[in-house]
Known about the structure:
alpha+beta; four-stranded antiparallel β-sheet; 5 helices
Amino acid sequence: MAGEIAKRNSLLIRPIVSAHRLAGRCRFRRSGTIARRSPSVRQRQAFTLIELLVVIAVIALLIAILIPVLNLARERGQRTVCLSNLRQLTLAWVVYAEDHDGKIVRGSAFSRTQTFRLDLRGWLGRAFLFPESRSAVIEHPDKGALWPYVRDIDVYRCPRGQAGHFVTYSTVIAANGYPVEGTYLPDSGVQKLGKRVGKTVLRLTRLTDIISPGAAQRAVFIDMGETPVGNHFYVHYLYPKWDWTSAPPIRHSDGTTLSMADGHVEYWKWKGRETVEMPRKLLPPHNSLSSEVLQEGDYEPQTEDGLYDLQRLQKATWGRLGYSAEKEP
């Protein structure tokens, strides 16, 4: 009996074992087939040297196209911020005058004159004169006569300004700045009232001085890109030349930004290559910060476009030229 049962079980197990062996051989054959084909599959998935070089060239081309576009977009954004800063400062400049019986704030940035009758502070205080840090600016008590109107130190500098300089803007010298030869009445005391030529008052000390040309054509602030070591942006009146302390600002795509007395702001792109490439040098640093000046002293333009750039700024500063406009380079 037991023998018959064992025999029957062996007959049942044998087909199962055969089936397993057959399946194993099939799997072995299939896996063998895959193993034999896998090298060719890997070869089809890899890049050839030529394909790799083409991909690299395409990526390099895209980078070459995108980087200038991104830089331009960034520059335009910074220029917009700069123009907004100038607008705020100019509106503060106008409101200050309205609050002081029409008298324009002193244009010499860091100066202060005290007499028994007058306390004349510059529009910009000594807090901004090469401070050691941002906190030093905030903590310094002398931030200038316009600080009550613009209480944000970031408004006083362009985002593209030199690193470490906490102010990059300056008034043009005709906006109640340092008296310049041929622009003021010698016998007018401390105030140095502006000389009048026709309806044009050269040196502005009151809002009512702005008659002809009108406020939309008289410059107030300009972006120098650095701290104004000369207290203002100096522009000659009698001579067709740039002052060595005030090189043409090269701030935004070979141009600069400035504001006018009516509160509107402008971007000027310099017309002459000579204006952009004028030789410059750095003065010894103040608190590790250098300032840019013209390399060979005052510079007289030698090209028509260079002269155009200078005269355009002279007219915006003084309202007119103090020499013959027909001068040829």
